[in-house]
Every structure is written in structure tokens, then in C-alpha cells.
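Recall that a protein's primary structure is simply its ordered list of amino acids. Everything else, from secondary elements to tertiary packing, is in principle encoded there. The following example makes that idea concrete.
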Amino acid sequence: MSRTVSITLRQAMNSQETGEVMVGLLTLTHPSFPTPLLLSSDPTERLSDEPLTYGTISRGDTYTFCPMVVSLPDDLGERAPAARFMVENVSRKIVEQIRGISSPGIAKLELVLGSSPDNVEIGYPDFQVSRAQYNANVITLEVSIDALTDEPYPAETFNPSGFPGLF
């Protein structure tokens, strides 16, 4: 599958050394959250002095810096592809929000360049958060895309009441 990216990203990816930084923007949403939880993988700029907070401002939204690791989806034939987000150095606020949910949330991952955070270079579709684990240092979110194999096919049952013209 081809993907259109900016010339700046292509030059940064193909150069031996670059000053460009790829920034991951993670958006977590859930009906119980008053506002989406916005996290950034890079301390692009200082957001506040008290408390000292770094993050990224992209398209008018403020993403708070939390070091994170993204494990790419596995390729097992028995199930839908699953990925893992590990957010480190978490605050109590994030843990309280994660602890308070009982149904799956939605996670969206976007990649931007540090020099142009308003331009989304690569956007991944909404992942469904299937599992969340946390401790004092790390929140681990296991996410997956809904498998099309779980959807009924055909979507309708062809019976006389629903499709009288066939009978």
C-alpha cells in the first residue's frame, strides 16, 4: 500500500543524519473521559513552568509528553493484528482515568515531524483498546483493529419477509 508523505519526511528518512524528529501523538478516547487523553512521545516545547510540563501542540490541541514505546502489530493468522502501547513515567491523573473505565476505549496514533507538528505525516486508524494494565511506572495498552472476520457475512439473511422479490 502506498502512502503519501512530505518531501521533508522522505529526506529525513533517507539521510544519514538529520535534525528532524518523528513525534508520535496518541489520542485515547472513552465515553467516561471528560476530554480525550492526549499524549506525545517528544518534549517538543515547554508547556508550563509550574508544574514543569513538556509536550507538543498540534492543530490547536496540547499533547502532554510521556515517554512511550509502540510495538507493531503481530502477524498471527488466528486473530486480528494487535499492537501494544507502553506509556512510561505516567501521572496519577492518567492512571485514575484508565482505572475508571470498564469498556473498550479508542486509541488513535498519528506521526508528525517536530518541525511541523500541524501536518500529520502518517495516521493510523482508530484502534480498539482491548486490554489495559498499569503499575507505578508504566501503562500498557493492548490495541487491535476490529477483524472483518468477526462480522457476519452476508450482513442480511435472505428470507421471504426481508426479500420478498427473491421468492
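Helices lie at 7-14, 92-99. The chain is about 10% helix and 40% strand.
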